């Protein structure tokens, strides 16, 4: 039968009528012009001059369910000329031209026809796009035809067009031209709106205008499309109408066919020949020739704008646009009936049939290809028509003999009789009435008959057009309903078995949806329906609907499936029918439910498990700490709890029937498998159900022991928290279940040799090895080890203790799980608040073995990073391990315990190496974090590991940023700013300075370690006995030992370059560091393995002198706090020694640097520190000459440039020798950074000058005069 369902759209339009019609609220919709978009996203309701546009919107009802509604998006007046009213309208959705479109419309155009003859085009928001006066008579009907993909090879492809009917004329607009014009108008409107202008220039519109002749009245029409006569019809028409001498063209012409209804004749058929200069018939030739010569395929005239000034509007209203004359088109033939007048015509989607209504209350079905009426219905006054084209379901093709052919389509005619308030659906052409529905008497049947405009055979590939064919609008309830018809209703009459089966399944669906039905009634109805259905596919569908219902009790499901099973057995096709495969899991579910009801009342003695207490007590403290760390509160949903009731459909969805009658558990979602396992075994693990009875029931159900074992261990491992609450009781119950499953038939093979590996116990080991739940896996291994040992002993039947490969595998597995438990407990310790790092990693035996020999050290190093352990702290903890002491904190005790269990994998050298690597990796992710630059340079590891690890760090992480910093500094010629550093190096200027300092330290350590690497043998890498089977990537230590030896001179020069860059960044100096070296080798040697030579140029000395000057200035800089001497800041005490070391590498005389330091310290007023450095200067003569100038600058400032000059100072200046006075006046005190130095310090400086200058020195006498002057000035003060 036909299916009727409400489309989730609500009509929200209440019309404003005049006062005299306010009392008649019911038939108001019949007086309105209503049109609906085929996409059901726009509804237009118009009456006289006003209109309302309703657009689709989502809303949430009171129950929280979202639904699509039609809400008012625009309302206003459409008429612009005085006295004109809306006479017709349609909504045309325009397809999107984007490649990513999937079939939804880009926008919808509203086309409105008026009684004045105007046709206007609007957007969804009521914006007028264009208007045209095509004819001066009222517009009777607007219709559209869009592109449809031909279903058969010989069908002519129809083009899109818009047809406009006038009382005696028909205008057709080409769809492609209209589509392009509407898009252009919409774009111009958008641009005009953005520019603030209201005037647009519409593009030209091409159309054809026909004058329909030889018919008295025309009220409706249909444009059938282009057709082509076959050769026989062409010759027949030529011989009948043209006579014996008629000529026939080789190719038949293409003609556009139009069908009209009205009066005189009742139905008319018009044919317009396309693209042919010679018509088929002579009496048509004149008309066709005149038509072809005068048809309008030109730009439309008479465009109208809007929103112009009032003067322009009045001028446009006075001057009517020119209306082009019509092209006469005579009627070819018709259906004459002088008393009958047609009211409407509705074209079928396949363009072969049409339904016509008349004033006699008849509905006539026309065959358009033959031009005859093939069927008539009476008693349908004021009927409204629509068509439904339904494709064949994919499921039906499986049972059809024509499964290899294209999908078939069924055609139905929908008739709405408002006088009777009934909606009927009829099969075509001579089919029965397949559905009838009682609806309101004031509804409106909305049938568009077209889809999206702008679609062609190329753009429509892969599209799924979401369009509704027939909708019924009920103004009383505000509901918009659609009619859906199953395809099979078109196959036969009411006695069809398939139609009856579909009726039965619909009846069953209605019962299942009802929540108030009693279980007994549900059982009887479901059993009756399933036994009455004949078709196997529908029977299977009905059974699946019943089994997937959540409200159906298990007893009902069991009874129904049992009855169906017996019926199938009696019919003899039990093994052939697919429906029988759903019986076994249903019986299993019923049996399990029944067993669980009396299992809870059943009590039996549990099997004993001797010796497990010792093992549990041994690992008890670790289990307790592990349980405390994993028992943190977390968010979970109630429906996700494994203790929630298991619905029948969830259980059955995990079961599949095999060919031998057994059951297999499918591996679907992990949550579903967990629910099924908990349903079967959790009651036994908690001690609420006897394990032997449950296992017997499961074995009777046909589930293999291997799958049951997998489900049991899955539940055990996933519900680890509940297991650790009562581990002793849970372990005993698990042992009982495991023994019961092992004794099942097919579990442990009878031919198993105890000296070989058992597949049964190997399955247990595999699940324990792969599990990340270390505690539950260890307890399961304890139990399985005991059970395997007992099984092996019973098979050997010997008084000697059983020793086999199977038991040795279990010993290794237990040892590994104990190690994993301790390691996982350490990794679960939460880091301090605010520390870096993410969630704690989950480890298992499988992940550690796949991680290689360095996987364990890698996990611990990540834990060290998350906890931000300082190198000194880590070294202290490892020292306690060697002393067999444990700290007071939990993390210390756990780390010591882990290191004791992994003495080789976590040796100090390897652990420090992995920690160093982890810190560098984290620093590389975020170079701005200063704490990540800690590279553990103060940890003394093995020399070989030290050297090669730093080589890996240098080559992997350091060299790229280091080279970027060097080339950037070389490019800008000075210390780069923050923006340039972030662009080229990837970090700020402060981070670059810190990074370069770390590079200096790293290279220095590398040089120190390389000098001693030949004296020490390389370390021997080993692993624990239980972890020798690690297979995975090479460890960090192995990769380090595989590195080639360093090139000491190259490392030395890299260290030199890093020191220069660090100094330049620290003191913001101007320098081109790469220019200090030989340009012929610099680009080939730096950051490579080739040695280069230094160039002998004075530039390095000047750079080092500027570094020393910057260091002395930083000593007295009040803006920065004094850092510790070991820091890397500009005030560090090691800068002079570093410059001296760099000077030796750059071939700079160190005495020049020492003299410069002395002069800079005296210049800054730091006389005491200058005297300390003066002792190391070798060339005293040069130093004396330099200090003599500095002393003269001080005395010149005191006597000549000081603002507080005294009379005694002036008298002293007069008593000085002329030579000294002239020399003091030539001095420039502005070069002094600290001119205000106490006179005793200057006197002490002059005394030092007398000591270091020899008596035969040229300036010795000048120094004596200075000494006298300073002494005199000091005495007067």
UniProtKB/TrEMBL annotation:
Its main location: cytoplasm. The keyword Nucleotidyltransferase does not apply. Residues 707-1254 form the Rab3GAP regulatory subunit C-terminal domain. The keyword Oxidoreductase does not apply. One of its GO terms (cellular component) is cytoplasm. It is found in: Cytoplasm. Keywords: Cytoplasm, GTPase activation. Pfam families: RAB3GAP2_C, RAB3GAP2_N. Residues 28-446 form the Rab3-GAP regulatory subunit N-terminal domain. GO terms for molecular function: GTPase activator activity. Belongs to the Rab3-GAP regulatory subunit family. PANTHER family: RAB3 GTPASE-ACTIVATING PROTEIN NON-CATALYTIC SUBUNIT, RAB3-GAP REGULATORY DOMAIN. This is RAB3 GTPase activating protein subunit 2 (non-catalytic).
């Amino acid at each position: 039968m036909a299916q009727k369902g409400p489309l989730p759209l609500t009509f929200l339009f209440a019309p404003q009528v005049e006062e005299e019609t306010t009392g008649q609220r019911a038939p108001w919709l019949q007086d309105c012009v209503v049109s609906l978009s085929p996409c059901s996203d726009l509804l237009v309701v118009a009456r006289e001059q006003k209109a309302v546009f309703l657009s689709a919107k989502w809303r949430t009802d009171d129950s929280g369910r979202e639904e699509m509604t039609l809400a008012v998006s625009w309302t206003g007046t459409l008429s612009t000329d005085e006295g004109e009213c809306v006479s017709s309208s349609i909504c045309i959705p325009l397809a999107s031209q984007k490649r990513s479109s999937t079939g939804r419309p880009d926008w919808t155009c509203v086309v409105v026809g008026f009684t004045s003859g105007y046709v206007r085009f609007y957007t969804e928001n009521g914006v007028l796009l264009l208007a045209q006066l095509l004819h001066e008579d009222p517009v009777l009907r607007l219709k559209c035809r869009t592109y449809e993909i031909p279903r058969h090879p010989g069908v002519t492809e129809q083009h899109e067009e818009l047809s406009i009917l006038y009382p005696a004329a028909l205008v057709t607009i080409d769809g492609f031209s209209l589509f392009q014009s509407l898009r252009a108008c919409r774009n111009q409107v958008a641009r005009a709106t953005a520019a603030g202008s209201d005037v647009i220039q519409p593009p030209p519109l091409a159309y054809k205008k026909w004058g329909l002749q030889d018919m008295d009245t025309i009220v409706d029409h249909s444009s059938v499309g282009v057709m082509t006569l076959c050769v026989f019809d062409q010759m027949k028409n030529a011989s009948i109408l043209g006579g014996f001498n008629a000529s026939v063209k080789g190719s038949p012409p293409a003609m556009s066919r139009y069908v009209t209804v009205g009066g005189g004749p009742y139905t008319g058929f018009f044919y317009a020949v396309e693209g042919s200069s010679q018509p088929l018939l002579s009496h048509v030739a004149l008309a066709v020739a005149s038509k072809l010569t005068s048809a309008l395929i030109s730009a439309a005239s008479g465009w109208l704008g809007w929103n112009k000034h009032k003067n322009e509007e009045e001028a446009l209203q006075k001057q009517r646009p020119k209306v082009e004359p019509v092209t006469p088109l005579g009627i070819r033939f018709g259906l004459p009936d002088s008393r009958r007048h047609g009211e409407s015509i509705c074209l079928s989607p396949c363009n072969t049939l049409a339904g016509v209504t008349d004033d006699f209350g008849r509905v006539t079905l026309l065959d358009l290809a033959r031009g005859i009426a093939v069927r008539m219905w009476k008693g349908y006054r004021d009927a409204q028509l629509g068509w439904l084209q339904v494709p064949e379901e994919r499921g039906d093709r499986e049972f059809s003999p024509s499964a290899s052919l294209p999908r078939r389509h069924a055609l139905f005619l929908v008739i709405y009789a408002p006088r009777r308030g009934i909606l009927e659906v009829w099969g075509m052409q001579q089919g029965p009435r397949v559905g009838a529905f009682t609806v309101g008497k004031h509804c409106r049947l909305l049938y568009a008959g077209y889809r999206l405009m702008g679609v062609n055979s190329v753009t429509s590939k892969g599209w799924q057009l979401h369009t509704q064919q027939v909708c019924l609008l009920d103004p009383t309830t505000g509901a918009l309903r659609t009619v859906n018809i199953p395809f099979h209703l078109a196959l036969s009459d009411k006695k069809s078995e398939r139609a009856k089966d579909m009726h039965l399944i619909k009846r069953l669906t209605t019962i299942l949806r009802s929540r108030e039905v009693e279980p007994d009634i549900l059982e009887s109805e479901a059993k009756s329906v399933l036994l009455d259905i004949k078709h196997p596919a529908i029977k299977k569908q009905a059974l699946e609907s019943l089994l997937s219902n959540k409200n159906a009790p298990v007893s009902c499901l069991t009874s129904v499936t049992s009855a169906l099973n017996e019926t199938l057995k009696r019919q003899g096709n039990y093994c052939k029918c697919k429906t029988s495969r759903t019986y076994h899991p249903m019986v299993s579910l019923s049996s399990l439910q029944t067993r669980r009801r009396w299992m809870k009342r059943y009590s039996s003695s549990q099997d004993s498990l001797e010796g497990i207490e010792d093992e549990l007590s041994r690992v008890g403290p670790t289990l307790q700490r592990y349980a405390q760390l994993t028992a943190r509160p977390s968010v979970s949903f109630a429906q996700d709890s494994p203790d929630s009731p298991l619905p029948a459909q969830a259980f059955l969805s995990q079961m599949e029937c095999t060919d031998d009658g057994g059951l297999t558990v499918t591996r679907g979602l992990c949550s579903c498998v967990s629910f099924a396992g908990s349903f079967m075994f959790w009651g036994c693990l908690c001690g609420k159900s006897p394990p032997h009875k449950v296992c017997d029931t499961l074995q009777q159900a046909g589930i293999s022991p291997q799958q049951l074992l997998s489900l049991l261990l899955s539940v055990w491992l996933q519900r680890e928290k509940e297991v650790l609450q009562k581990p002793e009781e849970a372990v005993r119950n698990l042992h009982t279940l495991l023994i019961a499953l092992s004794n099942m038939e097919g579990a442990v093979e009878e031919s198993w040799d105890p000296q070989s590996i058992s597949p049964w116990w190997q399955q247990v080991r595999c699940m324990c090895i792969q599990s990340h739940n270390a505690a539950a896996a260890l307890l399961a291994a304890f139990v399985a080890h005991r059970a395997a040992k007992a099984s092996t002993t019973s098979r050997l039947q010997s008084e000697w203790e059983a020793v086999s490969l199977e038991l040795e595998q279990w010993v290794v597995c237990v040892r590994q799980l104990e190690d994993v438990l301790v390691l996982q407990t350490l990794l679960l310790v939460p880091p301090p608040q605010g520390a870096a790092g993410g969630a704690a990693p989950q480890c298992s035996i499988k992940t550690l073995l796949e991680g290689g020999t360095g996987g364990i050290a890698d996990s611990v190093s990540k834990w060290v990073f998350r906890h931000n352990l300082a190198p000194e702290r880590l070294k202290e903890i490892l020292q306690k391990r060697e002393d067999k002491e444990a700290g007071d904190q939990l993390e210390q005790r756990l780390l010591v315990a882990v290191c004791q269990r992994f003495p080789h994998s976590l040796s100090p050298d390897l652990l420090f190496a992995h920690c160093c690597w982890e810190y560098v990796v984290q620093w590389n992710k975020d170079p701005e974090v200063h704490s990540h630059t800690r590279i553990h340079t103060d940890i003394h590891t093995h020399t070989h590991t030290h050297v090669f690890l730093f080589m890996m760090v240098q080559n992997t992480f350091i060299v790229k940023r280091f080279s970027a910093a060097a080339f950037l500094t070389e490019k800008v010629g000075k210390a780069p700013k923050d923006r340039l550093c972030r662009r080229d190096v990837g970090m700020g200027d402060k981070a670059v300075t810190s990074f370069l300092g770390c590079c200096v330290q790293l290279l220095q350590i590398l040089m120190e370690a390389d000098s001693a690497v030949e004296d020490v043998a390389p370390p021997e890498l080993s692993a624990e006995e239980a972890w020798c089977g690690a297979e995975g990537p090479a460890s960090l230590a192995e990769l380090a030992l595989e590195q080639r030896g360093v090139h000491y001179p190259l490392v030395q020069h890299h260290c030199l370059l890093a020191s220069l860059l660090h100094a330049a960044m620290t003191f913001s100096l101007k320098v081109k560091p790469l220019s200090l070296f030989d340009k012929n080798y610099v680009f080939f040697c730096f950051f490579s393995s080739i040695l280069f030579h230094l160039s002998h140029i004075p530039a390095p000395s000047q750079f080092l002198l500027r570094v020393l000057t910057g260091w002395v200035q930083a000593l007295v800089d009040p803006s920065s706090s004094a850092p510790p001497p070991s820091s890397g800041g500009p005030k560090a005490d090691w800068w002079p020694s570093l410059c001296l070391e760099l000077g030796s590498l750059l071939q700079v005389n160190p005495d020049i640097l020492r003299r410069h330091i002395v002069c800079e310290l005296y210049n800054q007023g730091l006389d005491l520190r200058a005297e300390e450095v003066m002792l190391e200067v070798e060339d005293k003569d040069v130093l004396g000459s330099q200090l003599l100038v500095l002393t003269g600058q001080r005395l010149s400032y005191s006597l000549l440039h000081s603002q507080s000059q005294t009379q005694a100072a002036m008298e002293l200046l007069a008593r000085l020798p002329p030579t000294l006075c002239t020399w003091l006046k030539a001095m420039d005190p502005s070069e002094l950074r600290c001119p205000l130095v106490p006179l005793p310090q200057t006197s002490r400086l002059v005394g030092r000058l007398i000591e270091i200058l020899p008596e035969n020195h040229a300036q010795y006498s000048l120094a004596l005069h200075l000494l006298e002057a300073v002494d005199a000035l000091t005495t007067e003060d």
